[in-house]
Write a structure and sequence with these properties.
The chain has helices at residues 19-33, 50-55, 91-102, 119-124, 182-194, 215-225, 244-251, 266-272, 283-290, 304-312, 327-336, 342-352, 357-369; strands spanning 5-10, 37-43, 59-63, 109-113, 131-135, 147-150, 170-173, 202-206, 232-237, 257-261, 275-279, 294-298, 317-321. By secondary structure, it is α/β, with parallel strands linked by helices. Helix 6 (215-225) packs parallel to helix 7 (244-251) and helix 6 (215-225) crosses helix 11. The radius of gyration is 21 Å and the shape is globular. This is UDP-2,4-diacetamido-2,4, 6-trideoxy-beta-L-altropyranose hydrolase.
Length: 371
């Protein structure tokens, strides 16, 4: 990838969460190590991660903050993606702002990871890039991309994008292409070896980087209600987590707990944990690499298909929608969790994802540029 110029269009926000930017950063780090230059174009939503992107050594260009009430679709294109409101502007405005940034620059690959963008936006940018890669999880709209990545495990993956992408598009579907940081695969052997003698002494809680509804606090209330003793509890939140002071006050009642904010040590924390309580989303694949058993909460409908399939395969226990769970529910699930249930969950999870997704995607990106 030496000399390649890569542009990313992706956002993080309190509503969107941090997962899209984090997986793009993982890919960007690998691209940079392979000799490419990466730039990110992100709207300044509340909870954006522009600072983190720059800290990781990539260019980050900010689009203006979100408009309170973006205009609806045009008369010619009245139907908008289901997540259009996440964009913070109407699609044509966003396309125009992004096009202004990219004009005059070389973009060998434009990589788009955004539920609010579809083929119309991609067409409007077509003159600014040589090839287009789309990262998606929903398969609910059309794209004109050369390469599509969907790292999820849901029913009908093989045909999920039929009729939604061009005939020449290469589709990479399944967790074998999950964009995960190399430290997870590096810790996989040791983590799996440790789990040959499972235990329930150390708990990890991670309800997403932003957690706008403070599900983290609800889980901790459940831990306090339960009669299950934990030798140690690790609580992870992102830098955009809005209830930090409340969380710190809650954790004052947990002398065995440690708070981690935007930690770079997530792989180590997961490898050390015996059980995790997490939201759905991309953290699913990180847990799988390390064989970490988990109780999983669905925060949005986009997480339901994956959480359901993972539960059916025995790789995790999915508890349902966060809005339907109370602290007493969490307490009950934690109390009923038995060591004897862990080996099956460990085995099933570890078979879902091996952690080599970034390497596979890099090879395909490099091969595709030659065509």
């Amino acid at each position: 990838m030496t000399g390649q110029e890569i542009s990313f269009r992706v956002d993080a926000s309190l509503q969107i969460g941090t997962g899209h930017v984090m997986r793009c950063l993982t890919l960007a780090d690998a691209l940079k190590a392979a000799g490419a230059s990466c730039r990110f174009i992100c709207r300044e939503h509340p909870g954006h991660l522009l600072g983190l992107i720059r800290q990781r050594g990539h260019a980050a260009i900010a689009l203006p903050g979100p408009v309170a009430n973006p205009s609806p679709g045009s008369r010619e294109h009245p139907f908008q993606p289901a997540h259009a409101v996440w964009l913070g502007a109407d699609g044509s405005t966003d396309a125009g702002q992004t096009r202004t940034i990219l004009q005059g620059l070389v973009t060998d690959w434009l990589i788009v990871d955004h539920y609010a963008l579809d083929a119309r936006w991609e067409s409007a940018l077509k003159a600014t890039y040589r090839k287009l890669m789309v990262i998606d999880d929903l398969a609910d709209r059309e794209h004109i991309c050369d390469l599509l990545l969907d790292q999820n495990l849901v029913d009908g993956m093989a045909n999920r994008y039929r009729g939604k992408v061009p005939g020449h598009c290469v589709c990479l579907v399944g967790p074998q292409y999950a964009l995960l940081r190399p430290e997870f695969s590096a810790l996989r052997p040791a983590s799996l070896a440790r789990r040959k003698t499972p235990s329930l002494n150390r708990l990890l809680i991670f309800m997403g980087g932003s957690d706008p509804d403070n599900e983290t606090g609800k889980v901790l209330d459940g831990v306090r209600l339960s009669r299950k003793p934990w030798e140690h509890i690790d609580v992870v939140v992102g830098e955009s987590y809005s209830a930090l002071q409340t969380l710190k006050e809650t954790l004052a009642n947990f002398p065995s707990a440690t708070l981690h904010i935007q930690t770079p040590d997530m792989a180590k924390l997961m490898a050390a944990a015996d059980l995790a309580v997490t939201a759905g989303g991309s953290v699913t694949w990180e847990k799988c690499i390390l064989g970490l058993p988990s109780l999983v909460v669905i925060l949005g409908e986009n997480q339901r298909p994956i959480a359901t399939m993972m539960h059916q395969q025995g790789a995790q226990r999915t508890l349902g929608m966060a809005s339907e769970l109370t602290p007493a529910c969490y307490a009950g699930y934690l109390e009923r969790m038995a060591v004897g249930e862990l080996p099956t969950m460990i085995d099933c999870a570890s078979k879902v994802c091996d952690g080599a997704g970034v390497e596979r995607v890099l090879k395909i990106l490099d091969n595709e540029k030659r065509i």
